[in-house]
Amino acid sequence: MELEHGECNVIVTLGSQKVPAKRRLSQSKSPLNKIAKLKTRFETGNHINEADPNEIEPAQTQWACHTRVLHDQSPYFAALFGQNFIESRASVVFLPSSIIESNAFNSILEYMYTHQIPKPDTVKDICDMYSAADYLGMDTLCTGIEQLIYTSMAHKFTCYCSTCVINIPDLFLFCRTRSIQMQDERMIAMTQRIMTVIANDPEKSLSTYWTGRHMAKLLIQLPQDVSQALSHKILHRVNKSNAIESLYACFSASNILSTNDPLLSWSKPLHATLTSVQAKATRTIASHFDFFCCQYPALLSCIDEDQMDCGNVGILYQGIACDLMSRHAVEYNDQVKHILNVAKVMILCYITRRIGDIRHIGGLDKLDKSVLKLLADDLDVRPKLLISSNHPLSHRGIFSFLIPSAPTLNTTSTYTKALSRHSSRSATTSRHITLPSTTHHKSFTQRLIQLFKMFDSNLFA
Length: 461
Hints:
Residues 66-121 form the BTB domain. By secondary structure, the protein is mainly alpha-helical. The protein is built from 24 helices and three strands. A three-stranded mixed sheet has the order 2-1-3. Helix 18 (313-324) packs antiparallel against helix 20.
């Protein structure tokens, strides 16, 4: 640096002390031996005694620099050195420590001499560098820092990784403050991007950003109306198109918070938002239940056989026939009852067509006996016909030959192909599974009488 630019001829000092004009004039006339001493400290990095590594290194407050470099890179220094200011002839220049941090000015000097932006370690470091660069009028550096935040610190504000969960809430407070106080257009745009990633997609953000300690800290630091505005923003994004996903995200987020903060030492603001979102999601599902059963893709893919298979068909039947249809409210809502009946019939048709494959893999073996009996009644078959050979109920007793043979499962295409999800009371009577009747040569009673006759004849022979 010295070979390229010559001897350092100015000392930049951070501090709030105002130096009188006479003192600055005297400094400008003094020899540069003081600059030489400070330059030596600058080149050695102001290191403290290495014998004691436990001591904290004090922040650097003085830098030996070149006037020409400062003049060319910063409009602030260009105006300072190029006008009829006393500082233009002074050997020491003061910068406000309340605005410019030591680490930030170190990074800015590195940029001035190398034209490369050093990558900061923390969000605070990069924010301090931006504030210092803006104060010094270095617009190109501010643009570069903005891009560095966009790509490295915030991952283009479309990410939900653990790094972004920490960085983005910390960025929000800085960006919002500068947006309001400085009318900084870059920070205004960045604030909007942060609000988008935090609150626009409840399905993703609730279980990530709204479970972190940094988000909880942000909600506490912000004014109450701003914190409420953030919570209301994510609340208003819950609608019937994402209510189920939002409800599941609330469930996941609550589990995470109960693990990370079981005593509610810092997560109360987050729990308040999750409670509000959960209430709206459940209310939305209840108000548009017919939509979720008739039009919602995620549920339709189950009963339309896109996602239904031999392994989960029993669980689907149990959920509809036992869990939903048994609820008291369903009995008094004809439309909901109709929708569930249609879904139930479609599941029964699926079981009827694939009973062999279902039995082979034991798809219904995990059902409770009561559910299995209800399913057998709906299909008009014996429960043993629905389970695999490994199931305990499949073993027959010594009088099993007395039980009539089970009918073969079959459906008539006339009814199953014409099923519709849309409410039509006139059509509900034809939506059922038809099983062919089985003719037996001898009824159960006749066989029993024959058995007793054989027993009597042998007894009195």
